[in-house]
Amino acid sequence: MAGILAWFWNERFWLPHNVTWADLKNTEEATFPQAEDLYLAFPLAFCIFMVRLIFERFIAKPCAIALNIPANGPQIAQPNAILEKVFTAITKHPDEKRLEGLSKQLDWDVRSIKRWFRQRRNQEKPSILTRFCESMWRFSFYLYVFIYGVRFLKQTPWLWNTRHCWYNYPYQPLTADLHYYYMLELSFYWSLMFSQFTDIKRKDFGVMFLHHLLAIFLISFSYVNNMARAGTLVICLHDSADALLEAAKMANYAKFQKMCDLMFVMFAVVFITSRLGIFPLWVLNTTLFESWEIVGPYPSWWVFNLLLLLLQGMNCFWSYLIVKMACKAVSKGKAGKWNPLHVSKDDRSDIESSSEDEDSEPPEKKPHTSTTTNGTSGTNGYLLTGPCSMED
What are the backbone dihedrals phi and psi of residue 285, each rounded to the nearest 5 degrees, phi first? Predict the structure, then answer.
């Protein structure tokens, strides 16, 4: 183990030339980032998760009720042992051949069986109230951490001149405010990593999991080799649009469609401007070129910039989805579909759509059968007027 740790913390990889870990030990005069500080993120992540539970129950839920947001979920599918067994053990999306077989076995018409499977799938979806509470928690956190980041960075020299990110590097003292900012962000992303498996499942679950993993790795990596000044610019810039996204979701869940449209337009403008304009021209410029000029490249420098370029690739992907949805909305003349972030009913909606006439019609029996079934209505009535969920 000692050999593995010595290999992992090789100074020739992590630090510039002629710098050792001993040079970055804490002294009475100055404090530097230490790798063991990262362990603080785990108990803090648990605390953030507990704060979230309390917030959603005692603050977000009363707000949702005051806005008349329904607490009930989609309609429950009528009990049927055979269909339930197929749904849980075989497939949630039966093909035509299986539907025909079930139709003969149950004496149901195929249309009624399709409706049952749709209702059963939607039955596992969360209610609007649950969605609103989750969005309100994220909105509150993103707003707080972004305001804190702006207030903190306004007092720093590297916000106004990014070359200060590299002057006297890596002998840059760690201030209490910077330490708090880093630990708060890292703890939040760890909490998202764990809660993502219990939160509302999105179709972009894999992309968001990769994003959270990349964010954790970037924050931890930049903290260990004391690239925290540049790291704060990356963090604050990527927090700038998240609160607007969650505000758009909340407005849509509350059926304030005009406010939802406005919030989404603001989100799209801020997101694309910050991540496709400011980030490459301002942040990547300093991490790639100014740092090369002042400090010079070394192995972990290459890794850090490679991670930032990967992050920029994800920014381009999400920006493409936003523009694609906006163009689709303009072509259809439906402003409610501008939101690519699970806000309105679209091809990536949280609840599957179905036609009104189909859902209002009760399950029919074949003419020759004497068995009766209860009519069921569709499950799409409780969602609103909107894919890829951005956190970051």
Answer: -60, -40
